[in-house]
Amino acid sequence: MSELSAGDVADFRASTRAAIAGSGESLERVRGLMATKEGFSREEWLKIERDLELVGISLAADYGGSELSHHELGYAMEEAGYAAACLPLFGTAALAVPLLQALEDADVLHELAPDLISGRRTATVALAEADGVWELSSVATTAARDGNQWRLSGQKSFVVDGATADVVLVVARDASGFGVYLIDQGAGVTKESLVTLDQTRKMATLALDGAAARRIGTGDSSSAIEAATAVSRALLAAEQVGGAQRCLDMTVEYVKTRFQFGRAIGSFQAIKQRLADMLIQVESARSAAYAALRAVSDGDADSASIARIAGLTASEAFEFAAAQTIQLHGGIGFTWEHDAHIFYKRAKTSAKLLGSVDSHVERLSTFVESKLE
Length: 373
What we know:
The strands form two sheets. Strands 1, 2, 3, 4, 5, 6 and 7 form a seven-stranded mixed beta sheet that branches. Strands 8-9 form a two-stranded antiparallel ribbon. The chain is an alpha+beta fold. The chain contains eleven helices and nine strands. The longest helix has 36 residues, at 222-257. Strand 2 (142-146) and strand 3 form a beta hairpin. It is globular, with a radius of gyration of 21 Å. Helix 1 (6-21) runs parallel beside helix 4, helix 5 packs antiparallel against helix 6 (106-118) and helix 9 (303-328) packs antiparallel against helix 11.
């Protein structure tokens, strides 16, 4: 994999922010899209992919990709988080593509990559079930052979873009352990959109009743799924950093213009301290996210644990920054008309998307204990 130079990174980030946010940083477009059934504009997505090909950043040139690292994709995720973007970017680029890469099925990649990179098709991964836990141990959906194809039975929940994605990769138990299946979204598949706290990221439940599917890869795919999940967690952490940074930026601007007792409230020591706390959290999360992106890009043996550290650090930072944003904006921060609630809701849901803080701490404790033995 190659990497962008510092100057190229700055240009890439600027181009990505302009493409995602448009002319300015208003969330008016986001408010419009989150009220729609699909939750994004396919026309806008096609344009973004035509101009930037974000989905193909880390894919090999053989599949039409840019052969850059996950770190570069992380910059795009950070900008998407900053804009609270209503896009199929996370499901396609941060969930589906890393899993396809980890499975190393060249035929499937050659088949799917061109349409995903061009924006003609979107994708997602269905792993979590009723408990919302993103761990293989919680997977109960089963796959069984039926002649020359497979049949899936079970229910997947909290599937990002589950009602709209053109390609759905389902994780299920089979005779070999765990496998990944590309489902035929016809008979046997029932989709139900969920009403969730974060309206900017649509989710759905998929009921699978003997749904026809095609297995990707051979043998037990547990290791590939775990490796892909580490990448996804690192990319989600980058997105959370972007959201936390937006909270900090909008709060800093507000305290410069809100006056009490003839002074901008930003001049009060108590306000300065809370802003400093926000900054420390944001920068700590950014460092953790970048370390995780580097680890998964380099194939670090401990990348799964490093990604969990990034996940819990970024989750806590985003939730803290979003809560402080509402409080420091005073009464207006609690209103629907202000943008603060959009980031607060995304912070809350993102913190549980690929594992809660508690689950990360539990797994990291086990990891540390194994190192001490």
